[in-house]
Design goal:
With 837 residues, the protein is an alpha/beta fold. It has five domains: 13-22 and 52-148, DNA primase DNAg catalytic core, N-terminal domain (Alpha-Beta Complex); 150-294, Dna Topoisomerase Vi A Subunit, Chain: A, domain 2, CATH 3.40.1360; 307-403, no CATH class; 446-612 and 627-693, P-loop containing nucleotide triphosphate hydrolases (Rossmann fold), CATH 3.40.50.300; 695-836, no CATH class. It is 33% helix and 17% strand. The longest helix has 17 residues, at 635-651. The chain is globular and about 100 Å long. It starts with 12 loop residues before the first helix and ends with a helix.
């Protein structure tokens, strides 16, 4: 058989043949989206997903209507992408046979799919018959030319992107899924099967396809996006592990996209996910560096499986049997309760908890129990019913052990004992993973421990003051004593005036000591509900350390809430249900000249670095040229040093620290006490600096109140009046900037309500009598002691009560915060009248 592209072609193939010879089409732009690194096919409206529908512009001539619906509606592929590949409908068996397919593969009508290699040529064909043949009791959904040499499929319109390692690469299984990603602006290659990234050589050996030589992988971010059911398949896990290992050897940075299951727990592909209205950003939110571990194999299932009859019984009876089976197989425990969620333990790449879904729990149950359907002819094997699995996941009190936390270092518990045993501790609900540590104990002399931490580990960092040094040691020690603190702990902020100062490295080495790997990063978003869901996901994973990296401003109410909560209530990513999770993580953040809201300033401990250099990244002559490598090599010794400092405090009777920080009393007593006993000074000595320098929010409101008083004195006003002041003076821009006038006034109104009765500089913000429209009104009040310092109110304003309401001829401003059409008094002051008009 010759090259597939040289076969005689039936009706409809000519368009595909022309496309194969065409240059890159105009609709593929050469501009790169710098924020995502993806090329764009067509510029969509902001926030929308890019899909086609049969009604948009009519189907291509070469496609039957139902095939057009399958591609455009069901997989969300753009018309341009469909036409450029050359999908077409074939209705005659002879035409399919001419391409080299066997007689048994020639069921028609069928959708013909050209497979393009990385060089832009057709390597082979696939067909998708409307009526697939049955083999071994299963339908053959796709037919592939027998004896074909495998190839990596790449849509010809984006093949030039394969050579650019700065553009993220997506790998999925199936041509339609690859074209769906291309429609959404991604550089994607499609495999014809999970193992078909490799082929068979002439000697019968399995080797990577030569196509990989035409794809730049050095330093490239690669996303593996397979169907949602991969988590319950051993074979797919093995293929993912081998493929990711191959990619990593070539320098790629691999991440996995684990899609949620369908509404009934069914399989969901990346094209299905995008058609549901999700975006590439939603896919990226699902990315993880962790390769999910496979479910137990047949051989791993212990003992005889119990049999569960899943028909002709009440749901509660089936659920009870399933729970009994799960509980029996959960020894040693791998399934736990974490808050209100059922999780299982993962070990790759680090120890973490993974939330069980209908898909994962169904696979687990199938491996530890035999589900049967009872019929008149006897028992017939069955899959675990979805409603049974869903009921288990929704169980109020499932019979699994509680998981309060995960740690990769030994832990001190409230009574002062040190937990050093690998595995699960049922008394405290803690899971310890200590296999990478050797001979760790708290017997190192305190002077030696201080020297190892302060000089060897932290000696080259340009800390601004003793408080910063004390706080990073407190951050380093906190994971070891977190269980001794019955309450919240603050956010540790490592910040500097410029890049390259070492704040990121300081955060990394701190995490390397306690985790053995860099800390998991959580990005703060401008959308508060998204931040809430990310916090929930982090806490459900059980990680002991969470890093907010490269932040510029921290104003999130959700973050402020979690920092003072022992138990977090929030929503999961992709779902609306509320879940609970214990909050015993250590929180830290890095950034340059970070702005803090007033709420966050009281919840933050600062670690300031300043090299006093214009380009600090050019510094040399470090004690350890590669500090990360040194920390990895000496991790066990550094852990011993941390344990020894804490043990010294315990041996001294655990004297509490004397410094105070509201809402974090136990944290200050424990960490302050340890540092005090070990001779480390400066703990919480910089609180005045935090309040005077870091709280940009308070200073902005002081300036706003000054401008407010200058314009209105102590008159009653609403948000509509005050927005004029803010806009004229460019004040509080972070609050209302970029919004419409109405939205900005509403935001300002909410902010005023939140700050009632607070003192900003010389003024209290007070609520006033509501306007006649029922909207909120406010006034400034000067404290009695400051009356002599304030300018006198103009005589025209003092002749009337500032809260009086005038007749219909009076001038008014309105709204919940002064936005509706009703007019609320003010005074017959010409300046006010001119302003409002």
């Amino acid at each position: 058989m010759g090259t597939p592209g040289q076969q005689s072609t039936p009706r409809g193939f000519e368009r595909q043949e022309r496309n194969n010879r065409m240059k890159r089409p105009e609709h593929v732009t050469s501009n790169t989206d710098e924020t995502q690194g993806h090329r764009k096919m067509i510029e969509p409206e902001s926030g929308s997903s890019v899909t086609s529908s049969p009604n948009d512009s009519g189907k291509p001539e070469a496609l039957a209507q139902h095939h057009w619906n399958m591609l455009a509606s069901e997989s969300g592929i753009q018309r341009e992408v469909i036409e450029f590949r050359g999908y077409c409908t074939v209705e005659k068996k002879s035409h399919v046979k001419k391409l080299g397919f066997k007689d048994t593969q020639c069921n028609v009508p069928t959708l013909l799919i050209p497979i393009y290699n990385v060089h832009g040529n057709i390597a082979l064909y696939q067909t998708r018959p409307d009526n697939p043949r049955i083999k071994a009791g299963k339908p053959i959904k796709y037919e592939t030319l027998a004896g074909s040499v495998m190839a990596l499929d790449c849509h010809p319109s984006i093949r030039h992107q394969l050579l650019n390692p700065n553009i993220p690469l997506w790998i999925t299984e199936g041509i339609k899924k690859g074209d769906s990603l291309v429609t959404h602006g991604c550089c994607a290659i499609a495999l014809l099967g999970v193992w078909n990234w490799r082929g068979t050589n002439e000697q019968g050996g399995k080797t990577a396809l030569p196509d990989w030589e035409s794809i730049a992988l050095n330093g490239r971010l690669v996303y593996l996006a397979f169907d949602s059911d991969v988590m319950v398949k051993q074979g797919v896990y093995q293929a993912l592990a081998r493929l990711s290992g191959f990619l990593a050897l070539r320098g790629a940075r691999v991440q996995y996209i684990y899609l949620p299951g369908g509404e009934t727990g069914g399989k969901l592909g990346v094209d299905d996910y995008l058609v549901q209205g999700h975006t590439v950003a939603d896919l990226l939110a699902l990315a993880t560096e962790k390769l999910q571990e496979p479910l137990p194999t047949e051989e791993q299932a212990k003992g005889d499986r119990p049999t569960i009859q899943v028909n002709r019984r009440f749901l509660r009876e089936i659920v009870d049997d399933a729970l009994d089976a799960l509980q029996k197989a959960n020894d040693p425990p791998t399934i736990f309760r974490r808050g209100s969620t059922i999780v299982r333990m993962q070990t790759h790449p680090v120890l973490a908890a993974e939330t069980l879904t209908i898909v994962t729990l169904k696979g687990w149950l199938d491996r530890i129990a035999d589900c049967m359907v009872l019929t008149e002819k006897g028992e017939t094997p069955a899959r675990p019913p979805s409603d049974v699995v869903a009921d288990i996941l929704a169980h109020i009190n499932p019979p699994f052990p509680v998981l309060n936390g995960i740690s990769l270092v030994p832990l001190f518990v409230p009574d002062g004992r040190l937990l050093t045993r690998e595995g699960y501790d049922p008394e405290y609900g803690l899971f310890l993973g200590l296999r990478e540590l050797e001979n760790v104990r708290g017997t190192m002399p305190v002077d030696q421990a201080r020297q190892l931490i302060l000089e060897e580990l932290l000696g080259d960092f340009p800390f601004v003051d003793d408080a910063s040094k004390a706080h990073i040691i407190a951050l380093l020690l906190l994971p070891f004593v977190r269980q001794m603190i019955q309450g919240p702990t603050p956010l540790h902020l490592l910040h500097a005036p410029t890049r390259g100062t070492g704040k990121g490295l300081a955060a990394d080495v701190t995490a390397l000591v306690t985790l053995g790997v860099p800390a998991p990063v959580m990005a703060l978003t401008g959308q508060e509900d998204e931040t809430e869901k990310r916090i929930t996901a982090m806490l459900l994973s059980g990680t002991s350390l969470i890093l907010l990296d490269n932040v510029t401003a921290i104003r999130s109410p959700s973050l402020a809430a979690v920092l003072t909560a022992s138990e977090w209530h929030g929503r999961r990513l992709g779902q609306s249900e509320m879940v609970r999770a214990p909050n015993n993580a250590v929180w830290m953040a890095t950034g340059n000249n970070v702005e803090l809201s007033d709420e966050l300033a009281r919840r933050v401990v600062t670690i300031r670095l300043d090299s006093k250099m214009e380009q600090p990244e050019h510094r040399t002559r470090f004690r350890h040229p590669n500090l990360v490598v040194w920390v990895k090599e000496h991790r066990s010794k550094l852990v011993c040093a941390c344990l020894s400092l804490i043990q010294t405090w315990i041996d001294a009777g655990r004297p509490p620290g004397v410094a105070t920080l509201g809402r974090f009393e136990q944290w200050t007593q424990v960490l302050g006490g340890i540092l005090q006993v070990c001779g480390v000074s400066g703990f919480l000595d910089d609180r005045q600096w935090v309040h005077t320098e870091a709280d940009q929010d308070t200073r902005a409101w002081k300036a706003f109140c000054d401008a407010w008083y200058e314009r209105y004195g102590e008159l009653v006003v609403t948000a509509k009046d005050l927005f004029v002041v803010a806009k004229e003076r460019s004040l509080l821009l972070t609050l209302w900037g970029g919004r419409s006038t109405i939205a900005a006034q509403q935001r300002l109104g909410h902010a005023l309500a939140d700050r009632r009765d607070r003192l900003f500089g010389r003024f209290y913000i007070r609520s006033a009598e509501r306007a006649s429209s029922g909207n909120n009104a406010y006034r400034l009040e000067v404290p009695q002691t400051d009356l002599d310092k304030t300018p006198k109110t103009p005589e025209s304003q003092t002749n009337s009560s500032p809260t009086a309401t005038q007749s219909a001829n009076g001038i008014g401003v309105s709204g919940v915060s002064g936005v509706s059409g009703q007019r609320h008094l003010y005074l017959n002051n010409p300046e006010v009248i001119d302003l409002v008009n």
